[in-house]
Amino acid sequence: MFEITFENNPKTKKFVLSLFGKDIDGEGFIIEKESKERVLGSNGQEISFNELGVIKNGSEIYGKDNIVSLVDFYKRYLVK
Predict the structure, then answer these.
(1) CB atoms near residue 53 (< 10 Å)
(2) CB contact set of 30 (below 8 Å; sequence gap of 6+)
(3) Which of 2, 20, 34, 60 is the most buried (most CB within 10 A)?
(4) Where do the domains of the chain lie?
(5) Contact 79, 70 (CB under 8 A)
(6) What's the pTM?
(7) Running DSSP on this structure, what letter comes out for residue 22?
(8) Confidence at residue 73, expressed as pLDDT on a 0 to 100 scale
(9) Of all residues in the chain, what percent carry a pLDDT higher than 90?
(10) Residue 7: phi, psi to the nearest 5?
């Protein structure tokens, strides 16, 4: 299994998002470059650039950078 985690470094986060075809809208939310639709996190809510903490490869599951979201992400997608 492959996952991407990174420090809270804006340049790194923007680069990683660009690899996934994502951008940031005027309100700071992660969006699809093509459709401009906001990306949803693992909890089904829109996720802002500042909240981004992890991305799971394959289905592009995004998680927020807080303990509750990271534990939920771990339980749902990393524990088998």
Answers:
(1) 20
(2) 17, 22, 23, 24, 38, 39, 46, 47, 48, 49, 52, 62
(3) 20
(4) 3-78
(5) no
(6) 0.69
(7) E
(8) 79
(9) 30
(10) -70, 165
**47 C-beta neighbours (distance < 10 Å), count:** 21
For the chain, the residue count is 80
Q: Tokens 């951008």 correspond to what residue?
A: 23
Determine the Cα–Cα distance for residues 3 and 24; give it in Å rounded to an integer. Answer: 21
Token digits of residue 29:
């939310």
| Spatial contact of 60 and 20, defined as CB atoms under 8 Å apart | yes
Alpha carbon distances (Å) from 16 to 11, 72, 76, 80: 9, 22, 22, 26
Q: pLDDT value at position 16? A: 83
Q: Token pair for residue 62? A: 């995004």
Low pLDDT (below 50) residues in the chain: none
